[in-house]
Write a structure and sequence with these properties.
alpha/beta, 6-stranded mixed sheet, 3-stranded antiparallel sheet, about 30% helix, disordered C terminus, binds adenosine-5'-triphosphate
Protein backbone atom coordinates (compact mmCIF):
# COMPACT_ATOMS: atom_id res chain seq x y z
CA UNK A 1 0.00 0.00 0.00
CA UNK A 2 1.39 3.40 -0.98
CA UNK A 3 1.92 5.90 1.82
CA UNK A 4 0.64 8.64 -0.43
CA UNK A 5 -3.04 9.45 -0.52
CA UNK A 6 -2.47 11.66 -3.52
CA UNK A 7 0.24 12.20 -6.09
CA UNK A 8 -0.13 14.79 -8.83
CA UNK A 9 2.51 15.47 -11.45
CA UNK A 10 2.65 18.03 -14.22
CA UNK A 11 -1.06 18.87 -14.12
CA UNK A 12 -2.13 21.40 -16.74
CA UNK A 13 -5.51 22.77 -17.79
CA UNK A 14 -6.04 25.45 -20.39
CA UNK A 15 -9.50 27.02 -20.70
CA UNK A 16 -10.25 29.11 -23.78
CA UNK A 17 -8.65 32.23 -22.39
CA UNK A 18 -7.02 31.15 -19.16
CA UNK A 19 -4.30 28.74 -18.24
CA UNK A 20 -6.05 27.64 -15.05
CA UNK A 21 -3.50 25.04 -13.94
CA UNK A 22 0.06 25.40 -15.09
CA UNK A 23 2.24 22.37 -14.41
CA UNK A 24 1.20 21.52 -10.88
CA UNK A 25 2.93 18.87 -8.73
CA UNK A 26 1.63 17.74 -5.35
CA UNK A 27 2.15 14.88 -2.93
CA UNK A 28 -0.13 14.33 0.05
CA UNK A 29 0.74 11.57 2.54
CA UNK A 30 -2.06 9.54 4.08
CA UNK A 31 -3.56 10.97 7.24
CA UNK A 32 -2.59 14.54 6.46
CA UNK A 33 -4.85 17.59 6.28
CA UNK A 34 -3.49 19.39 3.25
CA UNK A 35 -4.55 22.88 2.23
CA UNK A 36 -4.56 24.60 -1.13
CA UNK A 37 -4.49 28.29 -0.40
CA UNK A 38 -4.71 31.09 -2.90
CA UNK A 39 -6.63 34.10 -4.16
CA UNK A 40 -9.72 34.03 -6.37
CA UNK A 41 -8.89 32.54 -9.74
CA UNK A 42 -5.63 30.92 -8.61
CA UNK A 43 -6.78 27.56 -9.96
CA UNK A 44 -7.65 25.79 -6.69
CA UNK A 45 -11.12 24.59 -7.68
CA UNK A 46 -10.00 23.51 -11.15
CA UNK A 47 -7.16 21.51 -9.57
CA UNK A 48 -9.51 19.88 -7.09
CA UNK A 49 -12.11 19.10 -9.74
CA UNK A 50 -9.51 17.46 -11.97
CA UNK A 51 -8.27 15.34 -9.07
CA UNK A 52 -11.87 14.43 -8.19
CA UNK A 53 -12.47 13.24 -11.75
CA UNK A 54 -15.05 15.95 -12.50
CA UNK A 55 -12.94 17.88 -15.04
CA UNK A 56 -10.38 16.53 -17.45
CA UNK A 57 -6.79 17.76 -17.51
CA UNK A 58 -4.91 18.52 -20.72
CA UNK A 59 -1.85 16.76 -19.40
CA UNK A 60 -0.57 15.41 -16.11
CA UNK A 61 -0.64 12.33 -13.91
CA UNK A 62 -2.89 11.73 -10.92
CA UNK A 63 -2.70 8.85 -8.48
CA UNK A 64 -5.32 8.63 -5.75
CA UNK A 65 -4.72 6.06 -3.01
CA UNK A 66 -2.39 4.39 -5.51
CA UNK A 67 -5.16 4.18 -8.14
CA UNK A 68 -5.72 5.99 -11.43
CA UNK A 69 -8.93 7.30 -12.96
CA UNK A 70 -8.13 5.57 -16.24
CA UNK A 71 -8.01 2.10 -14.70
CA UNK A 72 -9.80 2.14 -11.34
CA UNK A 73 -12.36 4.97 -11.53
CA UNK A 74 -15.12 3.02 -9.81
CA UNK A 75 -12.87 2.10 -6.88
CA UNK A 76 -11.66 5.69 -6.51
CA UNK A 77 -15.26 6.94 -6.43
CA UNK A 78 -16.07 4.47 -3.67
CA UNK A 79 -13.10 5.52 -1.56
CA UNK A 80 -13.15 9.32 -1.79
CA UNK A 81 -15.60 11.91 -0.45
CA UNK A 82 -16.23 15.21 -2.18
CA UNK A 83 -17.73 18.44 -0.95
CA UNK A 84 -18.09 20.88 -3.80
CA UNK A 85 -17.94 24.65 -3.41
CA UNK A 86 -21.74 24.68 -3.31
CA UNK A 87 -24.16 21.83 -2.89
CA UNK A 88 -27.66 22.07 -4.34
CA UNK A 89 -30.31 19.87 -2.81
CA UNK A 90 -34.08 19.88 -3.21
CA UNK A 91 -35.73 22.42 -0.96
CA UNK A 92 -38.00 19.78 0.50
CA UNK A 93 -35.53 17.03 1.22
CA UNK A 94 -34.46 16.60 4.84
CA UNK A 95 -30.91 15.90 6.07
CA UNK A 96 -31.99 12.37 7.04
CA UNK A 97 -33.47 11.69 3.61
CA UNK A 98 -30.50 13.12 1.73
CA UNK A 99 -28.03 11.08 3.78
CA UNK A 100 -30.11 7.93 3.20
CA UNK A 101 -30.30 8.70 -0.51
CA UNK A 102 -26.61 9.46 -1.02
CA UNK A 103 -25.65 6.47 1.12
CA UNK A 104 -27.71 4.18 -1.10
CA UNK A 105 -25.35 4.93 -4.02
CA UNK A 106 -22.37 3.29 -2.32
CA UNK A 107 -21.48 -0.29 -1.49
CA UNK A 108 -20.05 0.76 1.90
CA UNK A 109 -21.78 3.46 3.93
CA UNK A 110 -21.92 5.06 7.34
CA UNK A 111 -25.16 5.15 9.29
CA UNK A 112 -27.33 8.23 8.92
CA UNK A 113 -27.67 8.77 12.66
CA UNK A 114 -23.93 8.50 13.18
CA UNK A 115 -23.36 11.16 10.52
CA UNK A 116 -26.06 13.43 11.92
CA UNK A 117 -24.36 13.15 15.32
CA UNK A 118 -20.95 13.86 13.79
CA UNK A 119 -22.07 17.14 12.25
CA UNK A 120 -24.47 17.95 15.10
CA UNK A 121 -27.57 18.05 12.95
CA UNK A 122 -29.82 15.66 14.89
CA UNK A 123 -32.17 18.51 15.80
CA UNK A 124 -32.61 19.36 12.14
CA UNK A 125 -32.65 15.78 10.88
CA UNK A 126 -36.24 16.01 9.67
CA UNK A 127 -36.38 19.68 8.69
CA UNK A 128 -36.63 20.71 5.06
CA UNK A 129 -33.29 21.66 3.54
CA UNK A 130 -34.55 25.14 2.70
CA UNK A 131 -35.07 25.85 6.42
CA UNK A 132 -31.43 25.10 7.37
CA UNK A 133 -29.03 27.96 8.03
CA UNK A 134 -25.95 28.39 5.82
CA UNK A 135 -23.77 26.74 8.47
CA UNK A 136 -26.18 23.83 8.87
CA UNK A 137 -26.28 23.33 5.10
CA UNK A 138 -22.48 23.27 5.02
CA UNK A 139 -22.38 20.75 7.85
CA UNK A 140 -24.83 18.58 5.94
CA UNK A 141 -22.60 18.88 2.87
CA UNK A 142 -19.70 17.60 4.99
CA UNK A 143 -21.80 14.70 6.23
CA UNK A 144 -22.73 13.87 2.64
CA UNK A 145 -19.04 13.86 1.72
CA UNK A 146 -18.51 11.27 4.48
CA UNK A 147 -21.44 9.04 3.66
CA UNK A 148 -19.29 6.31 2.05
CA UNK A 149 -16.74 6.33 4.88
CA UNK A 150 -14.05 7.72 2.54
CA UNK A 151 -10.32 7.46 3.11
CA UNK A 152 -9.65 10.74 1.29
CA UNK A 153 -11.98 13.74 1.55
CA UNK A 154 -11.94 16.84 -0.66
CA UNK A 155 -13.45 20.04 0.68
CA UNK A 156 -13.69 23.09 -1.56
CA UNK A 157 -13.85 26.25 0.55
CA UNK A 158 -15.88 24.56 3.27
CA UNK A 159 -16.33 27.67 5.40
CA UNK A 160 -16.69 30.48 2.89
CA UNK A 161 -19.58 32.73 3.82
CA UNK A 162 -20.04 31.33 7.32
CA UNK A 163 -20.03 33.32 10.54
CA UNK A 164 -17.15 32.74 12.98
CA UNK A 165 -19.08 30.29 15.15
CA UNK A 166 -20.22 28.21 12.18
CA UNK A 167 -16.65 28.22 10.83
CA UNK A 168 -15.32 26.88 14.09
CA UNK A 169 -17.94 24.19 14.25
CA UNK A 170 -16.92 23.07 10.75
CA UNK A 171 -13.28 23.10 11.77
CA UNK A 172 -14.20 20.64 14.53
CA UNK A 173 -15.69 18.29 11.97
CA UNK A 174 -12.52 18.48 9.86
CA UNK A 175 -10.39 17.78 12.93
CA UNK A 176 -12.55 14.76 13.67
CA UNK A 177 -11.98 13.52 10.11
CA UNK A 178 -8.25 13.65 10.74
CA UNK A 179 -8.61 11.97 14.13
CA UNK A 180 -10.48 9.16 12.37
CA UNK A 181 -7.41 8.66 10.17
CA UNK A 182 -8.76 10.20 6.97
CA UNK A 183 -6.73 12.30 4.60
CA UNK A 184 -8.31 15.69 3.91
CA UNK A 185 -7.50 18.06 1.09
CA UNK A 186 -9.20 21.42 1.33
CA UNK A 187 -9.10 24.75 -0.43
CA UNK A 188 -9.43 28.00 1.41
CA UNK A 189 -8.83 31.72 1.09
CA UNK A 190 -8.12 32.04 4.78
CA UNK A 191 -4.66 31.76 6.28
CA UNK A 192 -6.13 31.41 9.77
CA UNK A 193 -8.17 28.43 8.59
CA UNK A 194 -5.12 26.88 6.97
CA UNK A 195 -3.13 27.48 10.11
CA UNK A 196 -5.85 26.00 12.34
CA UNK A 197 -6.46 22.88 10.29
CA UNK A 198 -3.66 22.01 7.92
CA UNK A 199 -0.55 19.94 8.51
CA UNK A 200 0.86 21.28 5.24
CA UNK A 201 -0.12 23.81 2.62
CA UNK A 202 0.50 24.64 -0.98
CA UNK A 203 0.06 28.26 -1.89
CA UNK A 204 -1.23 28.65 -5.42
CA UNK A 205 -1.30 31.60 -7.75
CA UNK A 206 -1.87 31.76 -11.49
CA UNK A 207 -2.21 27.99 -11.73
CA UNK A 208 1.11 27.26 -10.06
CA UNK A 209 2.25 26.24 -6.61
CA UNK A 210 4.43 29.07 -5.43
CA UNK A 211 5.28 27.65 -2.00
CA UNK A 212 4.68 24.54 0.08
CA UNK A 213 5.33 23.70 3.71
CA UNK A 214 3.78 23.69 7.13
CA UNK A 215 1.76 26.79 7.95
CA UNK A 216 4.38 27.82 10.53
CA UNK A 217 7.32 27.37 8.16
CA UNK A 218 5.59 29.27 5.36
CA UNK A 219 4.78 32.13 7.67
CA UNK A 220 8.34 32.35 8.90
CA UNK A 221 10.16 31.56 5.61
CA UNK A 222 8.14 33.97 3.56
CA UNK A 223 8.26 36.63 6.26
CA UNK A 224 4.57 37.09 5.68
CA UNK A 225 3.46 40.32 7.26
CA UNK A 226 0.51 40.33 9.60
CA UNK A 227 -2.29 42.77 9.10
CA UNK A 228 -3.67 44.42 12.20
CA UNK A 229 -7.31 45.40 11.80
CA UNK A 230 -8.65 48.36 13.70
CA UNK A 231 -12.12 49.78 14.30
CA UNK A 232 -13.16 52.66 16.53
CA UNK A 233 -16.08 52.85 18.90
CA UNK A 234 -16.74 56.50 18.30
CA UNK A 235 -15.57 58.82 15.55
CA UNK A 236 -12.36 57.62 13.97
CA UNK A 237 -9.35 59.94 14.08
CA UNK A 238 -8.38 61.88 10.99
CA UNK A 239 -6.63 59.19 8.90
CA UNK A 240 -3.61 61.03 7.59
CA UNK A 241 -2.85 62.54 11.00
CA UNK A 242 -3.25 59.10 12.55
CA UNK A 243 -0.89 57.53 9.96
CA UNK A 244 1.62 60.34 10.57
CA UNK A 245 1.51 59.80 14.36
CA UNK A 246 1.94 56.08 13.79
CA UNK A 247 4.65 56.74 11.22
CA UNK A 248 3.22 53.96 9.11
CA UNK A 249 0.80 53.47 6.21
CA UNK A 250 -2.81 52.73 7.09
CA UNK A 251 -5.23 51.26 4.61
CA UNK A 252 -8.86 52.20 5.08
CA UNK A 253 -11.71 49.87 4.15
CA UNK A 254 -14.78 51.80 5.23
CA UNK A 255 -14.88 51.48 9.04
CA UNK A 256 -12.10 48.92 9.11
CA UNK A 257 -8.52 50.13 8.98
CA UNK A 258 -5.75 47.74 8.08
CA UNK A 259 -2.14 48.15 9.11
CA UNK A 260 0.41 45.73 7.67
CA UNK A 261 3.23 44.94 10.05
CA UNK A 262 5.90 42.27 10.53
CA UNK A 263 5.58 42.65 14.31
CA UNK A 264 2.01 43.10 15.58
CA UNK A 265 2.98 42.98 19.25
CA UNK A 266 5.33 45.91 18.89
CA UNK A 267 2.68 47.81 16.98
CA UNK A 268 0.01 47.59 19.68
CA UNK A 269 1.36 50.22 22.11
CA UNK A 270 2.12 52.56 19.22
CA UNK A 271 -1.44 52.14 17.97
CA UNK A 272 -2.88 53.12 21.32
CA UNK A 273 -0.63 56.12 21.45
CA UNK A 274 -1.53 57.20 17.92
CA UNK A 275 -5.24 56.78 18.64
CA UNK A 276 -4.95 59.36 21.42
CA UNK A 277 -6.78 61.71 21.79
CA UNK A 278 -9.35 59.93 19.66
CA UNK A 279 -11.65 57.46 21.38
CA UNK A 280 -9.91 54.24 22.20
CA UNK A 281 -10.19 51.39 19.75
CA UNK A 282 -13.28 49.32 20.39
CA UNK A 283 -11.26 46.25 21.18
CA UNK A 284 -7.69 45.76 22.01
CA UNK A 285 -6.51 45.74 18.46
CA UNK A 286 -6.45 43.75 16.33
CA UNK A 287 -10.16 43.40 15.89
CA UNK A 288 -10.08 40.08 14.08
CA UNK A 289 -11.74 37.80 16.55
CA UNK A 290 -9.90 34.67 15.69
CA UNK A 291 -6.26 34.18 16.46
CA UNK A 292 -4.11 37.11 17.41
CA UNK A 293 -2.45 38.91 14.57
CA UNK A 294 0.94 37.43 15.14
CA UNK A 295 -0.59 34.04 14.41
CA UNK A 296 -2.75 35.36 11.73
CA UNK A 297 -0.93 36.74 8.81
CA UNK A 298 -2.49 37.43 5.51
CA UNK A 299 -0.49 35.55 2.99
CA UNK A 300 1.96 36.11 0.76
CA UNK A 301 2.03 36.92 -2.78
CA UNK A 302 5.39 37.62 -4.23
CA UNK A 303 3.97 39.79 -7.02
CA UNK A 304 4.22 43.40 -5.92
CA UNK A 305 0.88 44.41 -7.37
CA UNK A 306 -1.02 41.61 -5.74
CA UNK A 307 -2.68 42.26 -2.46
CA UNK A 308 -5.13 39.45 -2.47
CA UNK A 309 -7.67 38.98 0.29
CA UNK A 310 -6.73 35.37 0.83
P1 LIG B 1 -11.92 30.83 -6.27
O1 LIG B 1 -11.13 30.97 -5.02
O2 LIG B 1 -12.55 32.10 -6.71
O3 LIG B 1 -12.87 29.68 -6.26
P2 LIG B 1 -9.97 29.26 -7.69
O4 LIG B 1 -8.60 29.43 -7.17
O5 LIG B 1 -10.72 28.08 -7.25
O6 LIG B 1 -10.83 30.57 -7.43
P3 LIG B 1 -10.61 28.41 -10.37
O7 LIG B 1 -12.08 28.41 -10.11
O8 LIG B 1 -9.94 27.12 -10.49
O9 LIG B 1 -9.83 29.28 -9.27
O10 LIG B 1 -10.34 29.27 -11.68
C1 LIG B 1 -9.04 29.40 -12.26
C2 LIG B 1 -9.17 30.19 -13.53
O11 LIG B 1 -9.85 29.42 -14.52
C3 LIG B 1 -9.98 31.47 -13.37
O12 LIG B 1 -9.39 32.46 -14.19
C4 LIG B 1 -11.36 31.09 -13.88
O13 LIG B 1 -12.03 32.20 -14.41
C5 LIG B 1 -11.01 30.08 -14.96
N1 LIG B 1 -12.08 29.09 -15.13
C6 LIG B 1 -12.53 28.26 -14.16
N2 LIG B 1 -13.48 27.43 -14.67
C7 LIG B 1 -13.61 27.77 -15.98
C8 LIG B 1 -14.42 27.28 -17.07
N3 LIG B 1 -15.27 26.27 -16.87
N4 LIG B 1 -14.30 27.87 -18.26
C9 LIG B 1 -13.42 28.88 -18.46
N5 LIG B 1 -12.60 29.38 -17.50
C10 LIG B 1 -12.70 28.83 -16.26
Amino acid sequence: MTDLALRVKGLRKQYAKVLAVDGLDLEVPRGEVFGLLGPNGAGKTTTLEIIEGLTSADTGEIEILGLTWAHQGQEIRARIGVQLQSTSLFNKITPRESLDLYGSYYPKRRGTNELLDLVQLQEKADAYHITLSGGQQQRLALALALVNDPELVFLDEPTTGLDPQARRSLWDVVRRMKAEGRTVMLTTHYMDEAEALCDRLAIMDHGQVIATGTPASLISDLAIPSVVELTFEGAAPEPSAFAARLDQAVERRADLWEIPTPDPKALLPRLLEAAHPAPAPSHQPPTRRAPPPSLHPLPPLPRPSARHPL
